[in-house]
Write a structure and sequence with these properties.
The protein is mostly helical and 497 residues long. The protein has helices spanning 2-15, 18-34, 36-45, 52-87, 92-121, 128-152, 156-172, 191-197, 209-232, 247-263, 266-285, 309-334, 337-346, 351-377, 386-411, 413-431, 450-461, 468-493, and strands spanning 291-298, 301-308. It has a two-stranded antiparallel sheet with strand order 1-2. α5 crosses α9 (209-232). The longest helix has 36 residues, at 52-87. The termini are far apart. 49% of the residues are buried.
Length: 497
Amino acid sequence: MTTLTFARRFLIESARTPVNLLVLVLVPVVFVVVAAKPLTDTAELLGGPGGPAVQTATAGWAAGFIAAIAMYFQMRAARAADRRLVLAGLAPFRLVAARMATGLVLALLATAAALLALQLRTGLGDDPGRVLAGTLMYAVIYLAIGALIGALVASPVNGTVLVLFVWILDVFFGPVLGAADRPVTRILPTHFVTLWMVNLPSGHGGQIGDLGWALAWAAVATAVGWAVITATSRTARTRHHTQPGSAVGQIAAGVRMGLREAGRNHVLWVLLIAVPVVFVLLAVATTPDESTSLTVREQGRTLSQLVWLPDVHGGTMAPIAIASLATLAGLFTVLNARSADQRLTLAGFRPGSLLVSRLAVVTVLALLAAAASLAVTATVFDARQWGLYIAANTLIALTYALIGVLICPLFGRVGGVLIAFLVPFLDIGIEQSPMLHPQPPAWAHALPGYGSGRVLIDAALTPTFDETGALLLALAWLAALTAAAAVLFRRAATAPR
């Protein structure tokens, strides 16, 4: 009875976390309803099965992500509370059982939300029992991933970013978005679950088969979750650290403090290395040897150009990596800036100097994200106009860094991280992608990545510049976002007396 009581209280606490409710609605809509068709096209382009297999797998992807985020926030809330409960006399076994029961309910909710979205879009197919069981195994495995990250990472922003990174690696290099027989992908946590769920026999499951390996992964995940929750109940530690002439001197001090704060964010530096490797090098390594047709402008005419896919795929993946990193960099810059900026203003820091220093930090981090991705891209791709190609990627970096700045006050800390992932993914990764659309759809012309994206394609594939209108549009977006960021910073720096 005690276990059930605590499980009920833990569920109520999870329901009070706004991010859990946001993810429960947003993720199934985006990945099962909106992005299923583009992801199917991507799978067919990259040698995967495509078709119904991808659409079925989206339910598992959505359920896994929902479960990981929900379990992460439950574990983060438990860091101090569980220790106090044990010290107050609650048996550790009962505490762990209550947390595991809560995790199971979260997995069932994630599964139900994902399957509901799949049913509304395409239905559950000819074998709904297989789809249901596979989606539930996804959720159970990602519960353990969320619990493990929750035990290791205290910052909710960094923890959410790590969950996203693991999920992206698992999904985008899994067996339905690429070839299922690549040995390197067999270590991914949902490799065998996906193959069994979409009824695509791997041929490398051995005597126990794909279902046996999938159940083994789910069992190991359950054991890991139990061990992590047990360890967390014995550990509780919270740390929080903040740091508090002339206009030129104030700007220099503000930039120095901002860069020092960014330097303490170890997750950001890991991502600067890992994201280009995942988005560019691994994408190139898994690209099929075939040609595709891309639409370009040359000498004022729109032409269809046949290109060898392995030669250009890295160049088209670089802006996705850059946009993702730059958005996170802008988001991280303003995460804790509001109270700090108010204190600096009260201490005599000029609002103009504060604005310039914050924008300078955002610019430096955006340029660093672009440089890291371009350095990796240069090893596998040769642009026709390198100077213009670098300039286009820089425009993307600055544009999305400013979008990251604006996202934080609108959606909060963790909700902002999720939106910071979705916006560049839908804009640069899907709607502006030349691999999926010969020309971006008409409505995508209004997105922030359209102008710089067309300049990038022109620079990557043609010897002369023909996208003056697109360049002006990209600069207009940059100017408008800079003005919006300036207004945001000035409001944030206004402190009540």
